[in-house]
Amino acid sequence: MQRRVGLRRLGFWYGLAACILKPLCWAFMKKDWRGMEHVPQTGGVILAANHISHADPVALADYVVYGTGRVARFLAKSTLFEGGGLVARVMRGAQQIPVHRHTADASLALTDAVAALHRGECITIYPEGTVSRDPEKWPMVGKTGVARLALLSGAPVVPVAQWGSEQILDSYRTKGLHLLPRHTMHLLAGPPVDLSPYAGQELTAEVLRAATEDVMRAITRLLEELRGEPAAGIPLEWRGARVQDERRSA
């Protein structure tokens, strides 16, 4: 069953964005939304999704707000929140979550995100950290921020797979938007990832990497279900254009 959030609950800036983007979703996106029952209606939760296009945050936000009934808070670099410009005002007004990069302690980078989860917010995160550079758009190796955030906060991680937005905007391959004919946005949430084996452990590199791999495997399994085919090969570890070139020449 789909649920929706009232504009009053969204607040002015978030509601304004919804009023602008929702008609575009109606006009250019068909919906195949599944698994909303796995997203808890109350309490802090992390939705961890694969990233296939610069267009998919619109589809994902639509799924979260109008499908699960939660208000999606996206993580963004803290510099976007600074100053009095329009972007900063929107980011603060919509209560998105700043990530404080370049801090000495990696845990401090997620201070605001942990606090938001303790307040009961629904945080949406792309563990890969960027749009997938995999040639077939399978999930890449995830960054450990999702595991660190989950283990610091104790919030459940709900995996989400999405497919279809790459037909609207195929980032890093083709230029321009392809809005018509309407494309189907497939989104599927699964049961929370079991991270209990790592609870209470010191957040070492090994623990964070193992927990992150569990999250990425869950996302990949859901994407396999959406696409009706198995993932191909070992996940790509993206560190820049050099790694992509090596993968292509392999």
Search tags:
single chain; 250 residues; alpha/beta; Glycerol-3-phosphate (1)-acyltransferase; seven-stranded mixed β-sheet; disordered C terminus
Residue fraction in strands: 15-25%
CATH topology: Glycerol-3-phosphate (1)-acyltransferase
How large is the radius of gyration? 18 Å
Order of helices and strands: HHEEHEHEHEHEEHH
The chain-level mean pLDDT equals 80
* Poorly predicted runs of 5 or more residues: 242-250
Indicate how many domains the architecture comprises: 1
Sheet with most strands: strand arrangement: 1-7-6-2-5-3-4
What does it look like?
The protein is of the alpha/beta class and about 250 residues long. The protein has one domain (about 30-235): Glycerol-3-phosphate (1)-acyltransferase, CATH 3.40.1130. The chain contains eight helices and seven strands. The protein has helices at about 5-10, 10-30, 55-65, 85-95, 110-120, 145-155, 205-225, 240-250, and strands at about 30-35, 45-50, 70-75, 95-100, 120-125, 155-165, 185-190. It has a seven-stranded mixed beta sheet, sandwiched between helices. Helix 5 packs across helix 6 (about 145-155) and helix 6 crosses helix 7 (about 205-225). The protein is globular, with a radius of gyration of 18 Å.
